[in-house]
Amino acid sequence: xxxxxxxxxxxxxAPPFAGGLEAYCWHLADGLTARGHxxxxxxxxxxxPRFTLDAVVPVHHERRFPGLEHRGDPGLRAAVxxxxxxxxxxxxxxxxxxxxxxxLSRLALERRRTQVVPTLTSLHAPPYDALxxxxxxxxxxxxxxxxxxxxxxxxxxxxxxxxRAGVLHNGIDPAAWPWRDAGDGSAVWSGRIARVKxxxxxxxxxxxxxxxxxxxxxxxxxxxxxxxxxxxxxGSVRYGGHLPGPVLAxxxxxxxxxxxxxxxxxPFGLAAIEAMACGLPVAGFARGAAAEIVGEAGHxxxxxxxxxxxxxxxxxxxxxxxxxxxxVLRLFTRDRWLDACxxxxxxxxxxxAPSPSPASRAAS
Length: 364
Fold this sequence. Notes:
GO terms for molecular function: transferase activity. This protein is an alpha/beta fold.
């Protein structure tokens, strides 16, 4: 198939990844290409050049409009809308069999566009007013919508999802997150350093539990870093930086427990399954999709309760390391995810195909 992958534009689609959405789009393009599909990645022009890349904007918009993603800036909104509209016009004229839309843009959901190119839209954020109506209005024979978890799907459709919306769990390559049979007794946390990710709770809980803790990930909110994280570093708590995937995997695999601290309704939790693949049980907050993703591989407590999280750490440490690894192998592999993507593409294309006319049926 000839497949267009439309990405979000806040960060480049390139390692080391700024977050889960960037990792998702990169692995999608990489995995589909490896399976023999002709893939064009529509993303910022500073994304990974190994892909066939159609630059929606020359550079990611966090460089041009730093810190304005969630502030309703009219200049950013106009620039992004114009860029997406032009890219969607190119996709419509590009002879694509299917579009996998990960953009979070309302423009890709318009029926006049999804009627031209069969479209799969994958949602990657909790519901918000600027997109909710367009998502609810958009399912059609040639357009399906996926959420990353059952909890995420319920958040978008509390009264029940329509038939053309469903769950598509994320997946990772287990070989990229190698299992290790024992840890060094420390805790680890990985993710974007932003308030909604809750690294400050991980620090508080690790100190209460008396475990060393290392934080990994990009500093997304400098003010949060300066006020809430940097003053807490030192002694048994350190920041390990924003590392490339293979180096990060080796660092995580050395630890004994992963602290997962979402302070928002986390749609999935990619960092959790990466750590689980390495054999780390999870101590974390039961928020968003956490219970669905972690399952028997961890111990979860109410969100924001540092004392409860500290008590959960020894509960998680008692879980054998094979348990989280086996859960990932059973439910969250990249092959399983790509199989599901291909099946959805085929179903969308079949549903979008015009029905034969009575005359042509009679002739056949």
